[in-house]
Amino acid sequence: MARDAEATRRRILAVALALFREKGFAKTTMRQVAREAGMSLGAAYHHFDGKHAIVQAYYAQQNAAHEAAVRAALEQAGGGLRERLGVAFHTGLDVRAGDRALMRELAPLVIGPDEALSAFSPESEPLRNQSIALMRDLVDDPSVPEDVRDPMALALWALFLGVLLYFTRDTSPGQAKTRALVDGALDLAVVTMGAIGLPAFAPVRAQLTSLLRDAELLPDELA
Amino acid sequence: MARDAEATRRRILAVALALFREKGFAKTTMRQVAREAGMSLGAAYHHFDGKHAIVQAYYAQQNAAHEAAVRAALEQAGGGLRERLGVAFHTGLDVRAGDRALMRELAPLVIGPDEALSAFSPESEPLRNQSIALMRDLVDDPSVPEDVRDPMALALWALFLGVLLYFTRDTSPGQAKTRALVDGALDLAVVTMGAIGLPAFAPVRAQLTSLLRDAELLPDELA
DNA sequence: GTCTATATCCGGATAGAC
DNA sequence: GTCTATCCGGATATAGAC
User: Fold this and answer.
1) Which whole number is the average pLDDT over A43-67?
2) Phi, psi angle pair for B215, to nearest 5°
3) Which range, of A141-150, A159-168, A207-216, B157-166, averages the lowest pLDDT?
4) What does the pLDDT average to over B11-27?
5) At what angle do helices A125-138 and A149-169 cross, to 10 degrees?
6) Are residues B60 and B90 both part of a single domain?
7) Measured between CB atoms, does B177 come within 8 Å of chain A?
8) Are residues A10 and A86 in the same domain?
9) What is the spatial distance, in angstroms and rounded to an integer, between the CA atom of A46 and the C1' atom of C4?
10) Most CB contacts within 10 A, which of A1, A84, B141, B199?
11) CATH code for position A154
């Protein structure tokens, strides 16, 4: 019964996330998850290949929430590139505001060798492409030269990853520093994207595109 | 007998690194390390608080090797800022060229919550300060306005961390992409550092310094 | 075929005797 | 400073229930 299986999966995920948030990822055991979800250890492992698989499901959930929130907020927001980028980034932080401690604990997995969880792995391609596509949509603006839009989308995605890492460790009230970092970094990014088209910046532009495209910002495996 | 203890420590570290490089960090067990070092599990744990403590010792060793290699290479190298930065970054890669696989596996620990190993933790301050100080020395150049030297040193340190992460995942022959990334990023950095002093760039300069200093590039805990 | 339970393995970590 | 014994939890094997 796939229907029941799906419900069971959701129940395990909910229980596990509650435990992760309450006691942390490392301190939560699969035995606890199974017990609180009302099943045996073996049963829990039947639905999730392990703790890491639960995290994977969590990422997908978070990603969907971000995407939906951004699309909704963009309906309201005005039209400028800078404003739309601000909405996307700040919404991304809003969605995750309650999970900073958990994300801080999970951050290692994102750059780790575990293929399923690494942000750079083939297994994460769907999630990654979804995020990059969002940035690509935002950057589809007359003020941005067409040939730098793709590399810029990639760079913005990488920037957002960095911002999230910063966010998880930012203990300033209301994570004001992260908010300021976002605003400053986006100001710079927009100025750069605007200036890059000027004839005077042709050399820098060639350098940037070669950095981000020919040499590729991300290593081979990301293709 | 502190003398014997120190020798035992070194023996454990050497054995552990050999195993890490041969079979990987995760697949190497403390039991193996102890056995190959000719002692019991408990004895090994007496000298190192755990696997993570061995990694910590490895980082310190690597850091010292990089610093020494850079200082030596700079004696030979000419005087330009760009050239000296290139020497520092490329030497950093040279020193670690044989350990890409291991570093890739250890990368998660660097951004992880484990205080002892995180690059951003108070416990790592000595190592971190050593690296930032090296960057600060390099940036002590007439072409760089004095008030941006400190934030630039911090930014260069962060850039180097990112380069190392890229390096561990770069499967291009001879890690040519990483080398190109270093050259391109440093070109941009030097151009930026030079241009930032011009009156026309006063607004951007204010933005940069506020980003890197007032708002701080790194979160609260890094002070 | 879908799901659950028990038993067991393995390795990191610790306790306490010597 | 070294040992043995033990704990704990992630992961797996496997048998069987529905």
Assistant:
1) 94
2) -80, -15
3) A207-216
4) 97
5) 110
6) yes
7) yes
8) no
9) 9
10) A84
11) 1.10.357.10
Question: What average pLDDT does range A41-69 have in this prediction?
Answer: 94
B212/B192: higher pLDDT: B192
pLDDT band (50, 70, 90) for residue B122: confident
Angle at CA B180, nearest 5°, toward A117 and B64?
75
How far apart, in whole angstroms, are the C-alpha atoms of residue B15 and residue B20?
Answer: 9
Q: Of B41, B40, B31, B33, give the one whose Cα is nearest residue B12.
A: B33
- The C-alpha atoms of residue A69 and residue A63 are separated, in whole angstroms, by 10
Q: CA of A172 to nearest chain B CA: how many angstroms apart?
A: 6
**What CATH number should be reported for the domain holding residue B13?**
1.10.10.60
Helices marked H in A97-198: 100-111, 125-138, 149-169, 176-195
Window 191-210 of B: residues touching A by CB (8 A cutoff) are 191, 204, 207-208, 210
Partners of A210 on chain B (C-beta within 8 Å) are 180, 184
Do B20 and B59 share a structural domain?
Answer: no
Task: Give the closest residue to A105 by CA, choosing from B97, B29, B112.
Answer: B112
- B36 and B70 in a common domain: no
Does residue A207 contact residue A136 with C-beta atoms inside 8 Å? no
Q: How confident is the prediction for chain B on average, in pLDDT?
A: 90
Read off the pLDDT of residues B199-220 as tens digits, 9 standing for 90 and up: 777 777 777 777 776 656 667 6
pLDDT score at B113: 81
Average pLDDT over residues A9-33: 94
Instruction: Give the count of domains, chain A.
Output: 2
**Domain-terminating residue out of B28, B48, B68:** B48
Same domain for B159 and B120: yes
What is the 3-class SS of B118-134, one letter each residue?
A: CCCCHHHHHHHHHHHHH
Residue B49, CA atoms < 13 Å, CB-side half-sphere: 7
Looking at the structure, tell me whether residues A153 and A62 fall in a common domain. yes
Domain containing B32: what range? Answer: 1-48
Contact B171 A218 (CB under 8 A): no
CA distance A99 to chain B (A): 14
Contact A108 B104 (CB under 8 A): no
Whole-model pTM? 0.89
- Lowest mean per-residue pLDDT among A132-146, B62-76, B113-127: B113-127
